[in-house]
Backbone:
């Protein structure tokens, strides 16, 4: 039986962050991860996705180059070469993470593990580890529907396995992943159709964002089919056909991508035996301090089903280690104000409450400021896509409780405004801030 202070099950963003922060405090840490280090984010999520988004943005830039006097002749795009370079970069990151664990004296066990008794974890190859604190950070996996022919489609993991760009793509879903993959496929040259169950995509976001995105999709010839509940997928003459419950038959696809959500990886961890309570979707139920229902067992990240974002998992895990090993007994993550970006084309940045959520919380104490404009980059281009912004303010002091942007640069500009909102900024603080001209970001401090 190997003794330590902290056992971490899962080597994704949250597990790595918690393990390393604990080790910095002098804790003896064991991390169990049988797969590539970095989890979903590094291997089949944020990092390779952003590389593909960069490639798509380059394609959009080349299309605009002629308006600026450049004679650009494209001879195609080598998708296989892009994939090879992207995968090599990811493998390099895997090695860097392994090196960081070694530098901090963290024992990396390349085996799966399960909780076999209070304070004990047994690995798949029969080794036993004991510690007073156990963190479960095993993440999630893409959901595939239980429908006839569902295996004819791929999920977001399968997207990163593609060796060639498909000509006609169907994407089923309406959240982050569906929106991001739609933009990447289209910009690189695929014809894209998105199938959403309801009336719009990004339904949990401020309605301005999805409405503006629909306009951008129309201009980009991304087709959106709403009210589309899948019933089956069929292969017809080497192409795929999606059949919906309403009787629709949508055929002619080379590739169908399921982007209908993710499920927490809780199977086979021995959680029930350890006294850990699971929610209705299989997620680990935790309190505000990441405690499960079992003493000494904690969980962070996607496995908890709360705000499934890499920075959230990292922040929650670090704060947990601060509390357990750093003497900061009240340290915890606030889930109240979480900035996030959807790497669509154009990108979407959002932090805080939507207008709808703010009115539900604050009633008639809400005031909203909006603007829409064509950014200076498109002054010379024949296309005139609009950037849209909204500030949602509440109370007599008009504290900014929501900030929503769709347009070029939204991904980079949002971080600073998130800092201001975290510090409690009011509309007057925005008004008193000098604008940086000419930028799109200045519009957020000049709204009337």
Residues:
């Amino acid at each position: 039986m190997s003794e330590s202070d902290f056992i971490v099950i899962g080597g994704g963003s949250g597990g790595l962050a918690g393990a390393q922060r604990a080790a910095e405090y002098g804790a003896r840490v064991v991390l169990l991860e049988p797969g590539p280090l970095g989890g979903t984010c590094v291997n089949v999520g944020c990092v390779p996705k952003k590389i593909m988004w960069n490639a798509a943005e380059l394609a959009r830039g080349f299309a605009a180059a002629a308006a600026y006097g450049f004679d650009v002749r494209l001879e195609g795009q080598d998708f296989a070469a892009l994939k090879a370079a992207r995968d090599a970069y990811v493998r390099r990151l895997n090695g860097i993470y392994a090196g960081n664990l070694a530098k901090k004296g963290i024992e990396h066990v390349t085996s799966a593990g399960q909780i076999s008794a209070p304070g004990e974890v047994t690995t798949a190859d029969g080794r036993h580890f004991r510690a007073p604190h156990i963190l479960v950070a095993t993440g999630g996996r893409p959901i595939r529907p239980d429908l006839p022919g569902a295996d004819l489609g791929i999920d977001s993991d399968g997207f990163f396995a593609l060796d060639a760009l498909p000509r006609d793509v169907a994407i089923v879903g309406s959240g982050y992943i569906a929106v991001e993959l739609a933009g990447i496929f289209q910009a690189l040259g695929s014809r894209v159709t998105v199938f959403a169950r309801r009336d719009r995509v990004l339904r949990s976001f401020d309605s301005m964002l999805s409405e503006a995105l629909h306009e951008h999709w129309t201009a980009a010839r991304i087709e959106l089919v709403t009210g589309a509940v899948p019933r089956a997928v069929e292969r017809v003459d080497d192409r795929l056909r999606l059949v919906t419950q309403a009787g629709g038959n949508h055929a002619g696809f080379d590739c169908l991508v399921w982007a209908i959500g993710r499920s927490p990886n809780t199977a086979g961890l021995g959680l029930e035996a350890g006294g850990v309570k699971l929610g209705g979707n299989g997620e680990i139920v935790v309190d505000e301090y990441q405690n499960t229902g079992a003493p000494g067992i904690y969980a962070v990240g996607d496995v908890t089903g709360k705000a499934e974002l890499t920075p959230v998992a990292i922040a929650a895990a670090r704060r947990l280690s601060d509390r357990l090993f750093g003497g900061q007994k009240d340290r915890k993550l606030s889930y109240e104000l979480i900035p996030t970006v959807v790497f669509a084309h154009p990108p979407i940045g959002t932090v805080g409450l939507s207008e709808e959520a703010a009115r539900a919380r604050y009633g008639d104490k809400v005031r909203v400021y909006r603007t829409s404009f064509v950014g200076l980059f498109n002054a010379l281009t024949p296309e005139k896509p609009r950037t849209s912004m909204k500030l949602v303010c509440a109370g007599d002091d008009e504290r900014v409780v929501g900030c929503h942007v769709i347009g070029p640069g939204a991904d980079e500009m949002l971080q600073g405004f998130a800092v201001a909102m975290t510090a409690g900024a009011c509309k007057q603080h925005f008004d008193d801030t000098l604008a940086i001209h000419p930028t799109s970001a200045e519009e957020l401090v000049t709204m009337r």
Summary: Residues 2-142+263-325 form a domain with the FAD/NAD(P)-binding domain fold (CATH 3.50.50.60).
